[in-house]
Amino acid sequence: MGMRRTVALLRSTVTSIALLSALAACDGREKKSMARPEADPGALRAWEQIATVLQHPRCLNCHQVDTPLQGDDGHPHNPRVTRGPDNLGVAAMRCTNCHNQKGNNPSSGVPGAPHWSLAPLSMSWADLSSAALCESLKDPKRNGGRSAEDLKKHMGEDKLVLWGWEPGAGREPVPVDHASFLQLLTTWVAAGMPCPKE
Amino acid sequence: MARIELKINGQDRQLDADPQMPLLWALRDLLDMTGTKYGCGRALCGACTVHIDGEAARSCSIMLGEAQGREITTIEGVSGPVADAVVGAWRELDVVQCGYCQSGQIMSAITLLSKNRKPSDEDIDASMEGNICRCGTYQRIRAAILESAKKIGGDQ
Q1: Which residues of chain A have a pLDDT value below 70?
Q2: Which is nearest to B17 in space by CA: B27, B9, B58, B112?
Q3: What keywords appear on the UniProt entry (chain A) (predicted)?
């Protein structure tokens, strides 16, 4: 009787240990699958260079909340203009009052490019850190509903975006040449668009 | 140089000019239409405002190549109920002091009232922001726009 109880106790103990071990193993696997993979350092370095372009006044000045900024120092737009319902201004103060669709005006110095406008409000980058900007770029609700490939196309071909590399006299172009910028973008996208931590 | 075809105040006009020439240069120097004024030449003051396809436009900054083939209206050619109301109110309230900026002010006011027949003070401020008056006639300009709105029935 005593021997049977001991064997039963041993069996019960072994079963419990096996169950606990199995649970522990499951838990470990769960934790492993939920852990954020280490970001590719090369891709993060690529992002930091991409961010220097996106946060440059040539891009940032029109990715604002209600009124655009102006100039290399990002001062408030003069004259003051407001977004309006279609991102193009209000009644008699519209972007196209002054900005030519056919390019920069060398006489007045007013810059121009096709579909000159404020970026949609959902795409405002005002006061965003590099990390927050990175996350917003990946979010279709905040990037104009774009996939990664759409983003590459937008930054590779859109004529208003390309204006940032040829902004006309008196304005500093974005700090990375366009071919290098697209290479950085490809590197970042290929690595899964990793973002830095705040 | 290129052949530029413009439609100004309903008339077809042809010019041999650089497509990058500002529309204002062509209006004043080549077509002798001097109602539109040169102020700053940098789209900062609004004195040169005309209409292109019904929208206010700074003719010192809009290039001939951009304006080609579109309907251009200058202060010499404004017409219709809104324009009549604005010009009438300007006279009745004696808005003008030196007058230099006023053709641009009137062109912007017509655009505003064509789109918004009952503008609030805030709407007027937002739309007239780009038209500077060195004499400071802003209060009379605002009053004339509100009076114009009454004339076209926007206050009802």
Answers
A1: 1-37
A2: B27
A3: Signal
